[in-house]
Request: fold
Amino acid sequence: MTTTKYIFVTGGVVSSLGKGISASSIGKLLQARGLAVTMLKCDPYINVDPGTMNPFQHGEVFVTEDGAETDLDLGHYERFLNKEMHHTNNFTAGRVYQTVLERERRGDFLGTTVQVIPHITDEIKNRFRAVTKGVDVAVIEIGGTVGDIESLPFLEAARQMGLEAGKDNVLYMHVTLIPYIKASEELKTKPTQHSVQKLREIGISPDVLVCRTEKPLGPEMRAKLSMFCSVPKESVIEAPDVESIYEVPTVFHKQGLDDQILMILRMRTQAKDLESWDRVVDRLKHPKREVTIALAGKYTDYKDAYKSVNEALIHGGIANEAKVRIRFLDTTDPKIHEQLSDVHGILVPGGFGDRGIEGKIRVAQLAREEKIPYFGLCLGLQIAVIEFSRNVLKLSGAHSTEFDAKTRYPVIDLLPEQKSVKNMGATMRLGTYECTLKKGSLAHKAYGTLNISERHRHRYEVNNKFRKLLEDAGLSAAGIHAPKNLVEIVELKDHPWYLATQFHPEFKSRPEAPHPLFRDFIAAAVERAQTKRSHAHA
Ligand code: GLN
Reply:
């Protein structure tokens, strides 16, 4: 039996330090040594899962194969490790409390006072252990910043694990910020000293410090951090800003972080094999061409809201040796036409709520009429169907009942089972569903097979009453979930590339395995860029 080693990743000073990327990068490096690695994210908030949260506050909701609505860091884990995560790989304080309270009501603790220590911390530790079957190393990321009230029970559980699993089996890595003060032209270590002190108060001494910094640390800074934080110099790791997040494993490796970790955890492994990863980074850094993709979303100022879409576009670029520039469109702009004059593809991502919907419909119309490659994801499919119904089928006022409950032409509607849903949490059509493709479709060409499965997160569906009308006029249902006869993909005839999916392909795209639909969408955009250029030269 393998003894699983644990690496706890905590964050200091401020949030948004890229703790998820750091955690994923060490996961990747250890995987490259031939180890079986899993990742876990603990979120200290009280929501039972992030499914009901506004992406504006907490970024995208990532959906796993088994239909869990999870933190966006799970997307990084899947992309870096090229491996599926499941519902057990993410849990919140709310979920922990819910489990403990349900057990209390059942009578499991009869006679005892139920307390944070040991009951909540025991439940947290059970959840740590639940992901370790057949795993050599579990990298456990604790959300929030050290010093927050909310993350205390998680840190306490991490401390207890050190005691229970033994010194050689647990490593604490603290990701922290070394701010640069312009006026004095100095990097400052004080905030890090304080956050390490905070950790020590809880009983955790970090073994490794990952220092986010704008400027190189230099030997003096390293020595100072080592001394004040009581971390060996070799374990003070610099994490500078890099062009692409996919470079971080290499940046860490060059400083010997993987060797340090293996030494601390007393593990012997094979030499690293990062060949395929290095190829990804190399292609990213040396693109042969460039395309601009317009993203018609709602959260234009907050990039994390479309994390997986952004990454999948970049992967599509890797497959085509192309740099993908993403331009966020303001769909409320009446002159949206002008924003599209020099783009090579348009993507309408998933979304909820009616803000900007008419603008998105207009964008889909322009893509259709001007033959600009179009890729619709979930809401983006619904938009395509609404636009086509209104402007080609001439069903004036056609809409989704999500946005107009009384429309005469409900081309997008709820299935009966969704109409009776009362609770909003975890009740959408979630997770993986199979889909059969039409022979000869763009989708068939992309996937190279007729049977696929993809992840979902939505309530509304194409209304089958309108399907024949749509198909006869040229909007083909190229993918069907046969058991329930649901439209999963639509494609437009006589267009260079116009395809929309009811599912979210972005969740399955990886840098080492770009998603076929993103690959072909970018290929179509490259094609458009090239024809445009040759027209300009003619
Ligand atoms: N709001 C739409 C629905 O619930 C689309 C959801 C999405 O794009 N993820 O069906």
In short: The chain is about 35% helix and 20% strand. The pocket of glutamine is lined by residues 350-352, 378-379, 402, 457-460 (CB under 6 Å).
